[in-house]
Write a structure and sequence with these properties.
By secondary structure, this protein is an alpha/beta fold. The protein has helices at about 20-30, 50-55, 70-85, 105-135, 155-175, 195-200, 200-210, 225-230; strands at about 10-15, 35-40, 60-65, 85-90, 135-140, 180-185, 240-245. It is globular. The two termini are about 35 Å apart. It holds the Pfam family adh_short_C2.
Length: about 250
């Protein structure tokens, strides 16, 4: 049974790999046997994620790319397509918080570019060799706000709702060609993106009261889902948005 989750010999690209959820996913895939190409705006070859991956006996390669820079993303995608990776984890993202009536359009534009448009641009290029050989795994990081509206994050909600739709659209076209496209929707995870919520005592309390598991999630809670959707265990799973939320959506 363990062979279903074995990623030995696979090459995985993980964006947003420097910290938080992306780092946890990269490390989990490496522990399962995959070599990792990590991508993040400020990723260095000697960052902690690189050391951990190499500690599992796997190779790690670092690329520093700003996902708000379309030309840089396209250049990265072209380079990665030449490497023909087996797995692409689209986790890079950003968030800006302000009431919708006051939300600067410059914030909206940047969040949509980083969290949605760049995801499609990169996937389109990296998927080409997957489709040619008839195999590959693509995973997007969606959000609870792919299902709900959120508060004070209109750009982020729009982008993550778009990610859910993009996941389904690509799955419809590519499942029959051997490429599985799915997404993971993290719940309230204790990362930099949720620091403002956790520092607001009233908001943090109201969130915790809604989570049946009774705690904020940890980045490591996403590890199993990432390995599952990257492995042979998910070969007949396509177009799904998998919540990892401590039961939030079930309330």
């Amino acid at each position: 049974m363990s062979g279903l989750f074995d990623l030995d010999g696979r090459l995985a690209v993980v964006t947003g790999a420097r910290r938080g959820i992306g780092r946890a996913m990269a490390e989990a895939l490496a522990q399962a046997g995959a070599d990792i190409i990590g991508v993040s705006a400020r990723l260095r070859p000697d960052d902690e994620v690189a050391e951990t991956v190499r500690g599992f006996g796997r190779a790690f390669e670092a690329h520093a790319v700003d996902f708000a820079d379309r030309d840089a993303v396209l250049a990265l995608g072209t380079e990665l397509a030449g490497r023909a990776p087996d797995i692409l984890v689209n986790n890079a993202g950003t968030i800006e918080r302000a009431p919708a009536a006051e939300h600067p359009l410059s914030w909206w534009d940047r969040v949509i570019e980083v969290d949605l448009s760049s995801q499609f641009a990169l996937t389109q290029l990296v998927a080409a060799p997957m489709l040619e050989r008839g195999s590959g795994k693509i995973i997007f990081t969606a959000s609870l706000l792919s299902f709900q509206g959120g508060i004070n994050v209109p750009g982020y909600t729009a982008a993550k709702s778009g990610i859910a739709g993009l996941t389904r659209a690509l799955a419809n076209e590519w499942a029959g060609r051997g490429v599985n496209v799915n997404a993971i929707a993290p719940g309230y995870i204790a990362t930099d993106n949720t620091a403002a919520l956790r520092e607001d005592a009233d908001r943090s309390r109201s969130i915790l009261e809604r989570i049946p598991a009774g705690r904020w999630g940890h980045s490591a809670d996403l590890a199993g889902a990432a390995v599952f959707l990257s492995s042979a265990a998910s070969d007949y799973v396509s177009g799904t948005i998998l919540p990892v939320d401590g039961g939030w959506l079930g309330r």
